[in-house]
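idk why but the lab printer keeps eating my pages so im just putting this in chat instead. protein + benzoic acid:
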Amino acid sequence: MPKELTAADPDQCVMDLYEQVLEVEERLIPTGLHVFGQPPEEYPLADLLRMVASFDRPERGCRSLPALVCEALRLPPYEELCGAETIQSSIDQPGRIAGREKADGIVRAALDAFLSAGNEAAIESLSSLAGVDAADSKPVFAFLSELREKLAGNDEMRGLTAALAGQYIEPSHGADIIQNPDILPTGRNIHALNPYGIPSAVAVQRARPIAEALLQRFVRESGRYPESLGMVLWGLDNIKTHGESVAQALWLLGVEPKRDALRRVSAVEVVPLGKLGRPRIDVVMTVSGIFRDLFSPAMSLLDQAVRAVASLDEPAEMNFVRKHVARSVEFEGLSAEDAQLRVFSNAAGSYGSNVNFMILDSQWENDDSISDLFVNRKSFAYGKHVHGKDARALMERALSGVELTFQNIDTTEIGITYVDHYFEYLGGLSKAVEKHAASRPKIFLSDAITPGAKIRSLEETVRLETRSRTLNPKWYEGMLKHGYQGVAEIEHTVSNTFGWSATAGAVEDWIYDEVAQTFVFDPGVLSRMRAENPHAARNLVARLLEAHGRGFWEASDDTLGQLRSVFSSLEDQLEGVA
Ligand code: BEZ
Ligand code: MG
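predcted complex ->
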């Protein structure tokens, strides 16, 4: 995980910095938008295939290429080389990095051979460079060939015209291409899943290392476990991952899903403390309206899990749910029913926190405007006996103990600065905690899609997205090629980044400095933006001025003067007086 760099040990500092640069370099970023009806070209093919080939796919008989290379070279497991939080590494950092670079280099060479000369050349490359057995690499390249062929086609226009003509359209999974490459070709009738199967066995398996890594990160920084944690659960993410964040919440509480004879998840089974090896964490769940509508069985399961844990006869220091429920009943006069409510969402039929609209429209005065709106919208409790009960005081009570907030990121396709919904939810929740717990929580996100369970702080994630995407010419040049909409995407990214200042104070000055430098003070970029979409260009400059005006950015007078002058010339252009 990225560390704070200090000059105390320069060699160590250089190594940490090097590892962070590797992380930025390795990240898969889109270099264009999807054009309906055209083959997907949002990602460079070699990078996309490398990501797809980084995971074991037992259903296809495929091992991950980095894992095969590490095994053949007798290196430690690839996750360990990447610095996975949950693995105590047996080798030092330079050894880890050297091993990782060696494995990465061999995988890249094999993929280059695959793209330029085909399967046999790739198999031969892996065999000669690392001694990987052809029997192991053959199924991987057969799979990548199939994927490459599918990526060259597109059925969207045919699917649309068939739909408009009322004809049958073949069904397909809805997912992310790395999670499930079977989604190709696009243009089919996307379906979701059976909500009674949530969370799936694979989701449970994937959730544990992430939940444990989250707790370990907190323990490392604070010297103890968090008693209460606030979590965001979304519907679409849980469709794609078959319930990974549901499984994370269950594991944090220290329970596992129990399946009936039809493989439906119908109850929870308590994991004994001896096996869990840590306290049960109190989890306050903020659930989107989409999740509430799609996953009624999972809503009941989460509520059931909290009740099961609250009823266990365990010491308070090992069961924070029981500790908090007992305290609320004994000292705060709550009924046992109310004291156990932890699943909150919008009122029935309502969706979203609206924090995004308030911030993007600049319609807020202070922190309380944000936290109050979030709680107004999201304080309806769901559980065994309640379905959307107005429970503002109970939610505020639950939030007052929260020490860390968290959201699972399950895709490389959408980052926390790409859309306004992440700051609307995780940012809104964190601001509400800040008000009711009287201190800002630690805010973390997972990165479930890179090998090894990665947890990053919000600040680290904002920095990583800014460096790998927003300020990366590969990304913004790709956007500028799309003209009007591309410029709008650039402005949205800047405004969504600003959303993290407003909700969590998580954007450092250099980010705004570099955004101004890249998009406003580079005359070439600015002139293309104003030619293609002057409204978005004006909004971007206005957002930078707002960041300064609200105290999120300490800009120099010279910078502000230049921004104001560009802003007024854009206004003139829009009013037709320029
Ligand atoms: C959801 O999948 O639950 C969701 C998607 C976008 C915005 C908010 C929630
Ligand atoms: Mg939206």
